[in-house]
C-alpha cells in the first residue's frame, strides 16, 4: 500500500541563528537527527526494499540523508523557497526592513525571489513523479514540505504557508479514499 514520508532536514547552522536561505551545514543537533533517522525509517517503513530517498540539492538535506542506505535522487525543485534579497537575513532583520508577509503569505514574493505560489508550480514535476511511485521519503525544507503536505492533505492557500512542519519529525502520509491519513514521528534530541 502506498505511503509517503516527509521530513525537513535536521537543524542547520542557519536555523540556530534564525537565518533563512543560504546553504549551511547541519548543526550538532541536526547531525544527531541524521544519525537517528536510519533506525526510525526502518522501524516506521517496515519493508524498505523499494524505498527511494529524494533530497534537494542543498547541503543540509543531503547531509540529513547521508546515513540512509537507499537509492537517492537530488531535485533542484525541492530546494527551499528562494528568499531573494533577504537570503541570509534573520527574521528580525527582515521584519525591520520589509513589509509583513502576513497580509497574504501565499502570494508574497520576496524581491528577487519566490512566493509560495511560485513554489507550488515549481513542485509540480515532483508531485507527478511522486504519484507514480510506491514508497518515497522526501527530505527537504520547511516551505517545500509545506507545499507537498498541503497537496496531499488538501489544505487551501490560506492554510498552506502556516502548516506546522516541525524539525526532527518524520511525517507519514497514507492515501485514503479522500485525502490522506497522517502520522508524526518526532525524534527527541
Ligand atoms: O523561507 C523559508 C522558510 O523555511 C519558510 O518559512 O515561509 O514561514 O518564513 P516561512
UniProtKB/TrEMBL annotation:
Transmembrane segments: none
Residue positions binding substrate: 8-15, 60
Superkingdom, taxonomy of origin: Eukaryota
The protein's name: Fructose-2,6-bisphosphatase
Organism: Hesseltinella vesiculosa
Residues represented out of the complete protein: 240 to 428 of 467
